[in-house]
Structure formats: C-alpha cells, structure tokens
C-alpha cells in the first residue's frame, strides 16, 4: 500500500505539469512505497543473501537519469515539513514574508548612566516554595530612579549570585540597562537561592514561569511590558514562558535554545550522551547548589535550601537520570512523556510574540535552531541567526560584528525596542535567516529556511569508495567494521558536546576528521569541478549487517582539501540499529526523496537486530551550511560509534553489540547513499 503523502506529492507534481509547468519526474527512494522499515527488511530477506559475485543489475526503479536541469530549477520543489511527536509532516506552505537582505546598525545613545540593584527578594509560588529574584533598575546620577520601566525577564538554573559576576549565567546586561530596561533574574526552583527540588524544565518548574510573570507585572517599577531573554538554559526558560501567552510578554530573544531534549542532545540516535549529560548536570549542581545570598539573608532558610538542593541531586533527579540512562531504564532511554515535556518545539505553535533565535553550526542544539524558524515563521515575526559557533562561542556571539551583522546586544536592543517599547525601529525588516557558511567563511542571508532554492541530490556509495550520483553497478562491496564504543573520542564531537570547552585543548582532531577516519570506512566524491553549496539537513541511507544483537552507525560529513590533506568537519549523525524504524509520515521529503527522517525512538518502535541480516539505517545528520570548494571532495565516513556524542545503554544495548563485527554494504541490492541539501552557488552572491 502506498504511503498517502508520497501519492499526494506525485499528484501535486502532475497538477503543476498540467497547469502549464514543464514535465518533471518525481524521484523516489527505492523503498518509499513500503509502509515501514520492517517491510523494507522483510522484502529483502526474501531474497538470497548477497555475495561478492552478485551481478544483478536490475535497477530500473532507481536509474532514472533524466537530469533536465532547466526544468528542475524552474519548478518550486515539492517539500514537506519535518513532523513532531504530535504533528505529521505537511506539504510546505507559503514562504516567509520578504525581509531585507542586508543588516544595518542600531546603536542609539544610552539614556541612563548607571544601574541600581535591589536587595534579594523572594516570590512565593502556589505550593509554598519561594523563588529568589534579583532586580536591577536603570539609574541616573541624581540617584532618583525613573520609571516605570519595560522589563527583561531571565530565569536561570545557574544561580543569580553567579550571574551577578558572569551575566551570561543570569545577570543584568549593562547595555540593556543603560537603554532603559529593568532586569529581573529568577533562580528556578531547586537552584541558586530558591527553595525546592530541581527537575530541569519539569511540569512544576514550567508552572512557576507564569507566576513569575504575574509578580513582575505587579511591581511599581514595571510598566507591564516584558521581553523574555536568556542564553542556553535561560533561553529555554524564555521560549517555554513565551508559550504560556501571558499578555505582558511582548517578545522573546532566546540564544541557543533546545528544541527536542531527546533528539538534540540527551539521546541522539537513541544513545545516551556520556559527555554532555554528566557535564551539564555537574555544572548546574556545582553552580546552583549553594544558595550564597539566601544564607546571608536568612541562615536557617539558606541552609535548608542547600540541603534540599543536594538531596534532590543525589536522590531525585541528576544522579538517578544518569544512572537510569546508563542502565537502560525504558522511561528514560526511550522517547515519551518525560522527554516530550523537555522538548519546547512541541509547543512552538503556542508562541504568539515576535521571536529571534540565535544558534550555532556546532552548538549543542544544532539540530533544532533552524527548525524553530520553520515552525513559527507563519504565525509570528521570526528571525534566526546561526554563527560558526559551539555553545560557549554562541553565548559570547564570538566574532561579531562581522559581514554587516551587528553585535548581538545591538540586535537584542532593536528587537525589544520595537516589540517591548513599541518604537518603529525596523526590527521586522531584519534579514529572516542569517547563516555563516563554512568554506565561504562569511555570513549569508536568505529569506527562508529550508532555503527556497534547495534541492536534494543523492550520492551513492560505490564499491571503490567513491561517491557518485549513479546507482552502484553490479559490483558488490562489503566493508567490515569493529563494533567498539571508543571511536570519536578525539573529534569535533568532543568539542561540541562539552559546550566547546574541550576545544581549548591543543588537539588537531577538533578541526580535522583525519584521525577519526582511520577507524572508519570513508567514501569521497571525485575532486569537484565546481563549488558545492549545501544548506539544510542531510540524510545517510546506510545498509549494514552485524554478527551481534545490536549495532550502530556514526556518519560524519567532511570537506576534504587535497592541498592541505585536512578533512574539515561539517556535521554528523548517529543511530542505534534497534531504533532504525522511521515514521515516513513525520519525515521531511523533497521531490519524493527523504532528506530528514523522523525516528520514533519509542519502546513500541524497537526493531529486532538479527545477526547477519541486512538493515537499512536511515541516519539524520544535523543541518549545516557549507561550501565545498572546487577541487575539494565531500567525504562521508562510517564507523560504529561516536563516544563523544552517544553511548548505548550498558545493560539493554551495549553488551549485545560490543563484541560484534559490523559490515557496511554497497551494491545494487543495498544502494547506500547520502542525500545532500544542494543550493545553487548563485545564492551565495545574493
């Protein structure tokens, strides 16, 4: 039975052609008409086991070589959005509203000379827990506060006391204060000077957000208009608060916010993050456990809060979550209610205020930052800026101003001046999408994401380890790979999943995949005859088998420069074999080719791994923007692990596959490939 969406796409294509458009063939994946991953495997398992002498050349369904370039480029691609837990993918709607293509400066003169911090205060929640709050007001030399003021609200897990010293962790920005904004910083429950137990964006914490907004509105120094701001955890609380639609909230400016807690970082590809999760929880616990100012204000309450924080970390949340993940506890290691509550993209449709997203090409939340733009651009004024940054670099907006893009605090001021103060300063005309393009080494603007001119181009793995647009010939290749959970430890992934902190080490593997490729099977395009501009998500379709009961595949995308011998990391993906099921009704498809798979990662979706039976691994590779220069090669590296990014749970998965031998398959019966989001080079000149 055909999947409805593919039939619909084909119907749309026919209608376009019938209405005067040029005829265009829709290209399907080899198994796009099968209902499920299991049907794919069942159909193959009815065939004899492939051998090295396999000469089957019947590839009629895949060898359509009609490459009428003019016809292809004259038609708008038929594309679907990426679905979510609660929404199916849909045929892409209207493009984003037109905006300026160039940036302009905005740096008005300050209106206040200094600031004044009020004593530590507490807000009582409806369950009796008290949250600590620090307020900073604009002030003039007369020591008389003007007001009331518009307010920037920040909610942090990193301790307001620390934020007073390091504003990125939860403090007032002097630039914003000097331009007339009061700043309110709140310790979320169970952290800093607040009472209660921390559970990282749990239901109870999210209930607190609206009560904090209500409190701010009632203060004499507040004019009732609020802009939500924050970086990392603070950006996540901002965007979750925006979804509650408090009338006082007028705009939101989250920097590196998460989108999907499970897929982005905690269990990428169904594997526990052994680097990020412990590192992050250690930071929250270390910075947020000690209520320094609360102890000074009221020693008894302060010590009680400290004991609650430590007890909560050991018995309630931090330590239990990590242990459950390592041991394979189902409610933690599979996608469900726990992770849905910690995936703000699920509530993106609720946002009704202008939103400016800041992200990084090597950020922890690289996957979701452009998705935020796609999800909300149709309902609210939305902009996205993505730099060449790790998490830490994005928080510091490293390298700005550059290529006309102003410093981040000027962008934030313009956003809030228009939407919080109500000033006509042209924020709605700022470029919709601004991305740093690796290889081009500059920021490039566009009107939409995914890029309006993006087309999927499928490159097939060949028996000689080349990457070509042609289907693999009758030659069959089998590339063995040891299943060991140690590969990728020294890689760009280590820098990425330590927030960028590891990049301070003088190791060459952070900007060169050459070391990782020694333990990988590497496929390369021939030296390019022209520049290749890719912008968007990438999908690898890897056929493999294993001698064990579990396996995984790590896929790295690199830009190889023959002049230097370096393979520059661009992006990567990871997938456990037992989680290889794909929900096609939630996956992104462009012109009939899947380019971003949606894996359910639920207990019900787990597929058995049968020794020595071929499996199709459709791997989601996080979106990037890069130009592979003429003369360079695009490389795809396959291995069985990426320890810096993910580790299979010890008891439920790791022991099933740690002694196995995987084999990557290439040939007409197993057409492994990578699907690239290719944009015309002319777009770089716009």
CATH architecture of the largest domain: Sandwich
Name the CATH superfamily assignment of the largest domain: Galactose-binding domain-like
Mean pLDDT: 85
- Global morphology: globular
Total count of helical runs of at least 4 residues: 20
Structural class: alpha+beta
* Number of individual domains: 2
Low-confidence stretches: 1-74
Give the biggest sheet: 11 strands, mixed
Radius of gyration equals: 26 Å
Termini separation: 44 Å
- Strand residue percentage: 15-25%
* CATH-defined fold name of the largest domain: Jelly Rolls
Query: So what's the CATH class of the largest domain?
Result: Mainly Beta
Q: What is the strand tally?
A: 24
Quick recap:
By secondary structure, the protein is of the alpha+beta class.
Structural commentary:
One of its GO terms (molecular function) is hydrolase activity. Residues 413-675 form the Xaa-Pro dipeptidyl-peptidase C-terminal domain. InterPro entries: AB_hydrolase_fold, CocE/Ser_esterase, Galactose-bd-like_sf, Xaa-Pro-like_dom, Xaa-Pro_dipept_C. Keywords: Hydrolase. Residues 49-71 have a biased composition (Acidic residues). With 686 residues, the protein is an alpha+beta fold. It folds into 2 domains: 4-57 and 455-685, Galactose-binding domain-like (Jelly Rolls, Sandwich), CATH 2.60.120; 114-367, Alpha/Beta hydrolase fold, catalytic domain (Rossmann fold). Helix content is 25%, strand content 24%. The protein is built from 20 helices and 24 strands. The strands form 4 sheets. Strands 1, 2, 3, 4, 5, 6, 7, 8, 9, 10 and 11 form an 11-stranded mixed beta sheet that branches. Strands 12, 13, 14, 16, 21, 23 and 24 form a 7-stranded antiparallel beta sheet that branches. Strands 15-22-17-18 form a 4-stranded antiparallel beta sheet. β12 (455-461) and β13 (467-468) form a beta hairpin. α11 packs parallel to α12. The relative contact order is 0.14. The model is unreliable at 1-74 (pLDDT under 50).
